[in-house]
Amino acid sequence: MKIQIPDDFDPEKIIRSGQCFRASAQPDGSFHFITGKNMLSLSPLGADTWEADCTPYAWKRVWAPYFDLSVSYKSLRRSIPAKDHFLRAAAGYGKGIRILRQDPFEMLITFIISQRKSIPAIRSSVEKLCLAAGKEITKNGRTFYTFPSPSALGKLSVNELKNCSLGYRAAYIHATVRMIAGEKISFTKMETLSDKELTEKLLLFPGAGIKVVNCISLFAYHRTAAAPVDVWIGRVIQKYYGGISPFPSYGHAAGIFQQYMFFYAQAKKLK
């Protein structure tokens, strides 16, 4: 089916923005995204039009929410004050990035894995984890593996997790899935928590520090006031904002603006 997306939308930038690790750009110019048991292939047709290999129902119920298409990112970019020179440059460079609405458990495990790992290394570990414990699904002749459920991951030993190139993070993940099973934690119920309550709850998971928690809050629960601070954003704050975080002043756009800054700083190899 053909889809028109007039607002900011660039799948390649989204894939490279450090928020999803199973999406991919294909040699034929198409882009593949996976969420839950769903896989999507998007091919550009020009003039903000895309060919999507899904039904209208799946687009409306799964993919339009996933890509956060109800929000005008173009309007958010235009709201940036003229005096905020770095953010304006970053937003111009990162035009097309959107905050994906992803699965909370997948984001919890993924960002525990992400600690002290490069984006390619994170991708590799996540893929190995899916191969080890995910379910195989075939669509249009293409095979992919779902992200493992908590119960499926719980069946893997620490050593089996280490075989997915997780290193010391394997123990954190093993403890996390045991905690989820033991306390019967519902990620859906956590959606009703305030930002503060959600942060406090997520910090209880083994290996989940504040940066990891902010990533989960932003990329799974769409708490767009959350702005993860990694080494790249730390450099931005020091170099362009006098060591004082600008994110509180951005309100609920903070997480979106952080993504523009992260993408720009990493691309420009900011020192």
Automatic annotation (TrEMBL):
Q: Which Pfam families match?
A: HhH-GPD (PF00730), OGG_N (PF07934)
Instruction: List the keywords (alphabetical).
Output: DNA damage, DNA repair, Glycosidase, Hydrolase, Lyase, Multifunctional enzyme
Q: Which GO terms describe its molecular function?
A: class I DNA-(apurinic or apyrimidinic site) endonuclease activity; damaged DNA binding; oxidized purine nucleobase lesion DNA N-glycosylase activity
Lyase listed as a keyword: yes
Q: What is its EC number?
A: 4.2.99.18
List the SUPFAM superfamilies. DNA-glycosylase (SSF48150), TATA-box binding protein-like (SSF55945)
GO process annotations (BP): base-excision repair; nucleotide-excision repair
Taxonomically, which superkingdom? Answer: Bacteria
The reaction(s) catalysed by this protein are:
2'-deoxyribonucleotide-(2'-deoxyribose 5'-phosphate)-2'-deoxyribonucleotide-DNA = a 3'-end 2'-deoxyribonucleotide-(2,3-dehydro-2,3-deoxyribose 5'-phosphate)-DNA + a 5'-end 5'-phospho-2'-deoxyribonucleoside-DNA + H(+)
The UniProt record lists the HhH-GPD domain at 113-266
> InterPro entries under this entry?
DNA_glycosylase, HhH-GPD_domain, HhH_base_excis_C, OGG_N, Oxidative_DNA_repair_enzyme
Query: Does the keyword field hold Lyase?
Result: yes
Q: CDD domains this protein is in?
A: ENDO3c
What is the name listed in the Swiss-Prot or TrEMBL entry for this protein?
DNA-(apurinic or apyrimidinic site) lyase
